[in-house]
Specification:
Length: 251
């Protein structure tokens, strides 16, 4: 019996190592890597999920980083860089991917991924820009409650970064209404000449908490493919929400 228990423990540890290594793995992939039967692989994954060592989003399993924290710190902000669904979105879109949130009247970068989308661009985390300058900021503004938006809008100064930046307050408010109806925002070289950006909101309890976006040279993001890109981003946004919920439900 003890021998069998040690063997099961070894398989469980190997499963954990693979989940960590691949930052999201399916049951089938796990079976192939470790040559496990479907019932054995499923039993181990289910047990690890019940113990909160891993969590599941759709068909993929991810490590729960909070389960392995050695030093417990009081962090006022969510650790966005630990969200594996952002990596999945970046690999699906194959463009530089950004996650940002509002701080005052600024947009703050909380996660940045560039090809090959394997690690965070730490040097860009915390970068700030004015909310009106990018698709990230605009899509968050467009989905805020009216009272919150009105209060925040009074603090915004529409300083231009390029010739394409919105500078007319009334025109900008009209633009935000269009973004809310469309469900995504488009930055047409408004912050950086030659760079376009598409962004969608990230929701929690039906409230916008952040935005997910891609940015690329203007020729890669056009009026012809923008809706397709926005749909892929929306799928990524939904996965982020589900991952946040899974992490919160496990504690």
């Amino acid at each position: 019996m003890a021998k069998n228990e040690v063997s099961t423990l070894k398989k469980g540890l190997l499963v954990l190592e693979l989940v960590k290594q691949y930052q999201g793995i399916t049951l089938r992939e796990l079976m192939n890597h470790l040559n496990l039967s479907k019932s054995t692989a499923f039993r181990i994954l289910t047990t690890l999920e019940e113990l909160n060592y891993i969590y599941k989003i759709q068909t993929r399993y991810f490590m729960n980083p909070k389960k392995f924290e050695v030093i417990v710190e009081k962090r006022p902000e969510k650790d966005w860089t630990s969200l594996q669904s952002v990596y999945q979105a970046a690999r699906n879109l194959q463009m530089s991917t950004y996650l940002g949130k509002v701080d005052g009247s600024d947009l703050v970068m909380t996660q940045v991924l560039h090809a090959p989308f394997e690690k965070t661009a730490n040097e860009e985390i915390g970068n700030r820009s004015k909310l009106h300058l990018s698709a990230l900021g605009k899509v968050i503004l467009a989905h805020l409650d009216e009272e919150v938006l009105e209060s925040l809008f009074s603090k915004l100064s529409l300083e231009p970064a390029t010739d394409n930046t919105f500078q007319d307050a009334h025109l900008f408010q009209y633009h935000l209404k269009g973004i809310r109806q469309e469900g995504y925002a488009f930055d047409d070289e408004e912050r950086i000449v030659g760079i376009r950006c598409v962004a969608v909101p990230v929701f929690r309890h039906r409230k916008v908490i952040a935005a997910l976006a891609i940015a690329a040279p203007a020729e890669q993001i056009s009026r012809g493919n923008i809706k397709q890109l926005a749909q892929k981003l929306s799928s990524g946004s939904e996965a982020i929400t589900k991952e946040i919920e899974a992490l919160e439900d496990s504690h």
